[in-house]
Amino acid sequence: MRTIFLATAAAVGFLLPTAGVIAQDKASTTAADATNPAIAPWKGAYGGVPPWDQLKPEQFPAAFTQAIVLRRAEYAKITANPAAPTFDNTIVPMQRAGRDLQRVATLFGVMTSNMTTPAYQSLDKLWSPKLAAASDEITFDKPLFARIEAVYKDRTRLDPEQARLTERIYDSYIRQGARLDPAQKAQLGQYNQQLASLFTGFSAKVLADENSFITITDEAQLAGLSDSQKASSRAAADKRGLAGKWVIVNTRSSVDPFLTFASDRALREKVWKAFKNRGDNGGANDTNAEIAAIMKLRADRARLLGYPTHAHWRMADTMAKDPAKAMDLMLRVWKPTVARVREEVVDMQAIAAKDGTKLTIEPWDYLYYAEKVRKAKYDLDQNELKPYFELNNMIQASYWSAEQLYGITFTEITGKVPTFNPDVRVWEVKDKATGAFRGLFYRDDFASGGKRSGAWANAYRGHETFDGTKTVLSSNNNNFVRGAPGEPVLISLDDAQTLFHEFGHALHALLSEVKYPGLGGTPRDYVEYPSQVNEYWVLTRPVLDRFAKHYKTGQPMPAALLKKVEAAAKFNQGYATAEYLSSAIVDMKMHLVPDGVIDPDKFERETLAEIGMPREVAMRHRLPQFNHLFSSDAYSAGYYSYLWSDTMAADTGAAFTETGNPYDPVVAAKLRKYILAPGNSSDRAEAYRQFRGRDPDVKALLEKRGFPTE
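and the corresponding structure tokens:
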């Protein structure tokens, strides 16, 4: 399971500003301050690029202040127009408004995700509620909404794309409280500001726990790890001034490999518990109070807005629409998932018994003994695979696949544009047939201090054509473990799939043909679809034959090893699905509590017992560290979306498989035309039917995971 996709501020409806929250100082209301890089228009080639190398925390307060003043003036001009509301004099200028603020918010969001320092954390805490209030001023502006409503009522005169944009804006404003009375708007504003503060506090506490680590002084405790894994742990220790020692950092990219190969069971338990208890240790970084407060505020807000629960409010703008539909899909997959976990545990228990080890499989044993089962059943050792998955080769594999499918090329230009970290690399993206420039792609692959865990995608600038073509600036952020100095970075098959997954988000942005920026974002349960389908190409033979080359010999992966990989492709799907799906079910169930009053630990424990969670598996994200849910509203009551999207992704993979060609040009062209290029300029369920000729078939998802289809 990969992590969150972060869109540009415009794509996710980043509304602003607010009187009384930001002082109306003497900042210009006509142009951004060209001397402050945090707000100045981006300069240079490629339509302008972010000035990452010039940014400092102290620049952002003035930038936010001025950007809000500028946007306030832009909206005031719209509402002051004496002419009757039309698409051209209301919706179009709304699409242009707030570009200064969008730039500031984009830069600030990237810095707080990748380069967090106490200074940035303080600014985040201070400005999050201010920005929430600024957003509400636009939403609550009665004259503005009256103009939007007038255009909406007359939308039959518009072309289909204009009508859809108008409908999307109108519906969004209603969901955000535009029809409330003044007292209700004031109350909603308080809820939103309180939530913004809580989100920031939650994120800071989780990041603090993720910056912790376990120090190892005896190399014997690293038994089972490969030489490259030991070297990475030693390098992590050296970086922290712990020469001669080894470090297991409290992030998934460091923890999972250790749990898979380390034979020291007591140390596995210690590492596992430290990882799973992030945010749940009762100290300064405990997040349970924040979760309880967030849940209550969300429920109160949903009730104020006329929805029975937060889940109903969040899902009003999704493909599923109704929480019951999402639950139906999850529970359909949950039953075979639990059955498969039982089978996997039996296999692991047998391996332990055969080795003469008397133990009961515990969660910290699962990956370790699963690896032993993999070796016994398929004669496949993950450490045997890693030498063939060298990071740079896999990067090139992802670009090659994109070229075969979509006819775009990637040329590295690292050093020619600014980056926020010396490790960030940059590629120029063009259409192969015409040479036309499509955008830039930035990638930041390695874990580092101040960077949040997981993997995610960003769009610094989205595609649009209504006001002159704007090209895409897209990025991927991973947390791969850096190798020892001078050594190549060897990644696991799961890491390779993560790389392709996040790259799928980037392709979605780079292949966009959207006219209006307001149609650039897609529903939450659709946005993971392009990324999940891109994982399909990792294990295709053309990729493995061309790029899965041994880092020492340069020889491609032997055919016999490829067969083992293919035979084991559905291995351990019980575990992978259970840890994800339990998290998604708990998310949905907690956000269906009408009053939002919960004890997080108790709710988690009781819900898992209710659904029959196998005791040998833990949630992928326990509530105290569940950033998807509590660092923003983005994935709240929405973690199911990975499964919803994967239903479409699996069915799309089947479309290629049915042709016998994983790069079938006809299917690829349809995928680009109907799925990737249009953004949200048409209904996404109908777009899928245009692509596939029918709705997605859940059987493809079950088959992909090796589960019974009946």
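(Above: one complete record from the training split.) Residues 310-380+568-639 form one domain.
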